[in-house]
Amino acid sequence: MNSAEPQRRFLLALESSCDETAAAVIDQQRQVLSNVVATQHELHERFGGVVPEIASRAHVERILPVIDEALRQANVKLDDIGAIAVATHPGLVGSLLVGLTAAKTLALVLDVPLLAVNHIEAHLYACQIAAQSSVFPAVGMVVSGGHSNLYDCRSPVEFDLLGSTTDDAAGEAFDKVAQVLGLEYPGGPRIEEVARSGNPQAFPFPRTFLNESRLDFSFSGLKTAVLYAAKGIPGARVQPPPLDSQRICDLAASFQAAVVDVLVGKCDQALRKTGRTTLLVGGGVAANSCFRQRLEEMAARRRVSLVISPREYCTDNAAMGAIGWELWERGLFAPLDTDVIPGLVRKQPTTR
Ligand code: KG4
Ligand code: ZN
Predict the structure, then answer these.
(1) Which CATH number fits domain 131-313: 3.40.50.720, 3.10.450.700, 3.30.420.40, 3.50.30.30?
(2) Which residue among 189, 227, 234, 341 is least packed, with the fewest CB closer than 10 Å?
(3) Could you tell me which residues come within 8 angstroms of residue 96 by beta carbon, excluding any fewer than 6 positions away?
(4) What average pLDDT does this structure show over 143-165?
């Protein structure tokens, strides 16, 4: 028997790279049979961001019930699982370790292969899940709480980094600006909501690197510009008016417009530079309606096909671990001494 040939029919995917504990069961046709996500937002809300120690402890408590629930909802037994995929990089060390330890234990006990999933590549693979045919090759943009990256996606297992953020990720900027405006965590959805009642042209915020050919991003200058517009420049003689609700909406709308301009502009540039005719967009910020609409306009204008991750697979989830099937079918297994890698690297070592 070729060990790369799936004999048992189902993939169990685990995800615990940040503050969601998630498990999914996926069949070989990439059909998601269950997708269970336990969010920890309520634990981190009062800190305005994810506290790594709290996150890893919560993963420990939740990982087994989440796996049980994913199997139950899929109506699949552990014995039917043929491989375990787990996000091993990048992410928070303690959080990643919980998922990896659970995955290794299951792989060992069930005697099935372990598959090491790159969390960022999985965000892009979320675009494949609902598509009728292969979405590769393509330009891929991942915009999440931890990352803003552009890739040349040559195949489902070959991703070349074209550019990334030099400071804050786009989602992180949404979260920090929300905090300045007194909106609750996670900030992205709240900014989107209040921005609907605001004027996107009220504040001329910077669009960093937009007119440069490099495919990198920077959002810290924009974040500081919003802070000064909201709270004033320390020590300055003239201070802004108080933050009433209209001003909050205008600041949110103007901030969102600046981020969206840059993200859409960089996708456009990456398409031109690579000559690719498909654009994939994934990650938490891809849930943003204003961003989705602007992407659609750009794609129609450039006549490229656009595949945005379905909304339920934008923020962290294990269904996007369906990319594990691509590794499984190619025999790209992870050894049992695989470790987590917190930083952004492209590859884990594999054995065939
Ligand atoms: O992909 P994700 O769940 O986590 C990481 O891998 O980092 O992304 C979470 C990020 C948060 O920063 C959140 O504020 C942002 O995605 N986000 C949004 C929206 N929904 C979530 N940002 C803008 N608009 C949204 N609707
Ligand atoms: Zn993520």
Answers:
(1) 3.30.420.40
(2) 234
(3) 16, 17, 87, 88, 89, 340, 342
(4) 94
